[in-house]
Amino acid sequence: MQSPFPARFLWGAATAAYQVEGGWQADGKGPSVWDVYTNTDRMAENGETANIALNTYDRAQYLQDIALLKELGVNAYRFSLNWPRILPDGVGTPNPHGIAYYRRFIADLKAAGIEPLVTLYHWELPQALAEKGGWANRAVVDWFRQYAGVVFDSLGADVKLFLALNEPSTDLGFTAYAKQFRETTRREPVPLTPLPPAAFTWFPGARMVHHQQLAAAAAIEEYRRRGLPGRIAAVAMLLIPALPASDSEADRKAALLADGLMNRIYLDPMLKGTYPEDVVAALRDTGAALPIEPGDMELIARNRADFLGVNFYSGFPFAADPAATDNWGLRMTWQGSPADPFNGPTRPDLFTAVLLRLKDEYGNPPMMITENGAGFPGDDVLADGKVADAKRTDYLVRHVAALGDAIRQGANVEGYFHWSSHDNFEWISGYGRRFGLIHVDFATQRRTLKQSAGVYRTIIRNGGVGPPG
Ligand code: FCB
After folding, report:
1. pLDDT-derived band at 198, boundaries 50, 70, 90
2. What is the rounded distance in angstroms from the CA atom of residue 212 to the CA atom of residue 202?
3. Per-residue pLDDT for 236 more than 50?
4. How confident is the model at residue 400 (pLDDT cuts 50, 70, 90)?
């Protein structure tokens, strides 16, 4: 069959700074909230930290990794910058060592023929700013604007693809989790980012969401002001199809609200210029209205992104639950089974559906799949120098095919970045959840290309056509 993928399609893989870099206190880097969650609070499973992680702050190490990316056959790589490595206190004087590290890394990637896609923020809020309220403080818009300006002044000429915020919903979901974790386990009081008491998993509050919208718009404004040659996205948006758990009217309403709180509250302002009415009304009812000030919607409208990053893992069923008064009267009903990936049931059909929804309801913006991938319990056993990750391989093949279907039906997608290139530190699950195409022995830093890596290489070589799924 003829490939539906455009000739100049970007075939990539992705990581994020905290999950791979290590060097957590190297060369004047300041602490991020994740350094504190893991080192002070011991929040991750088994008390693990990413202090060393994949040690890619070390050039000797990352050069090996770039060589592996070449072997994988990708023509693009998505990674993120660590905000307090560049600005140790979040604002103020930049750290020249941090900037030099990224400048060199970008040059090394490009020398290998790999196009960088650079995320400004993949959740490493500088601790100094968290202590001033973090995303709940409207000043975060200016903090982020300043940081973005420093990045664009130092790296802007070398990078063609930027992205401001990774998964804003998950970021705040983790912040809410960290708050709960701290409250239940710590003895001494620590400054906390204030959050509404009842945080829905992917929606911890109108105020924070609005600040994220403004911060992304401010970053885009800074980018354009400098007349730089590339393109910028506001978000890599985790899009989660919300399915009604049954045909009942109540469950359909619950799913619609979940969709509003997780997806539309981000997409609508960015792509349509307004917040969704039903969600605005629901927020008003809870007394937590969006803190929109004069000029805010204009800032967002003036700074439309050049493309949309889409992170897709799965979709979930939602049911009405009148007893869940602290959770918007709804409940996610997926129970999970051992055959399922960590991040939800395998649903390539919903991947196609999400992209067609963006085409039909949101004007078909240029899109980049900035994350898609899976980890399964027991799929990543290293035996005789090989990892036969059959489940990930199957997931990959089926999702690339689903993406091809969406493109064939007109979805405007320009690239696909598999999550992840390497096994890495998976936030609150630590090193126990692997998502990589490349296996990492975390004790020795030894890397091994998995079976899925070989299949991905074939897919890329064949212009997107893989073995039958
Ligand atoms: C996404 C995150 C990414 C990684 C994958 C598995 O939500 O953006 O950092 O943790 O999930």
Report:
1. very low
2. 14
3. yes
4. very high
**Over 70: is that where the pLDDT of 272 sits?**
yes
Q: Closest residue (by CA) to atom 4 of ligand 1?
A: 426
Which residue's structure tokens are 């899009």? 239
Distance 14 CA to ligand 1 centre (A): 10
Distance 42 CA to ligand 1 centre (A): 19
Q: How far apart, in whole angstroms, are the C-alpha atoms of residue 56 and residue 421?
A: 13
When pLDDT is averaged across residues 228-250 and rounded to a whole number, the result is: 97
The answer to whether the peptide bond before residue 420 is cis (omega within 30 degrees of 0) is yes
Q: Is pLDDT above 90 for 469?
A: no
Mapped onto helix, strand or coil, the DSSP state of residue 90 is: coil
Q: Give the Cα separation of 165 and 199 in Å (integer).
A: 20
Yes or no: say if 278 and 268 are a contact pair by the CB < 8 Å rule.
no
The finding on whether 427 has its CB within 6 A of some atom of ligand 1 is yes
> Would the CB of 222 count as within 6 Å of ligand 1?
no
- Whether the per-residue pLDDT at 197 is higher than 70: the answer is no
Pocket test for ligand 1, best of 15, 45, 120, 170 (most atoms within 8 A of CB): 170
CA 171 to ligand 1 centroid distance, Å:
10
Q: Out of 124, 167, 222, 426, pick the active-site residue.
A: 167
Active site residue 124: no
Copy the structure tokens of residue 109: 């990637």
Mean pLDDT value of segment 304-323: 95
DSSP structure class, residue 266: H
Report yes or no on whether pTM surpasses 0.85: yes
* 249 given a catalytic annotation: no
CA angle, residues 287, 282, 275, in degrees to nearest 5: 105
Between helix 390-408 and helix 451-461 the angle, nearest 10°, is 20
Atom 5, ligand 1: which residue's CA is nearest?
A: 419
Q: Which of 317, 199, 203 is nearest to 252 (CA)?
A: 317
Mutate to test the pocket of ligand 1, among 165, 169, 426 (most ligand atoms within 8 A of CB): 426
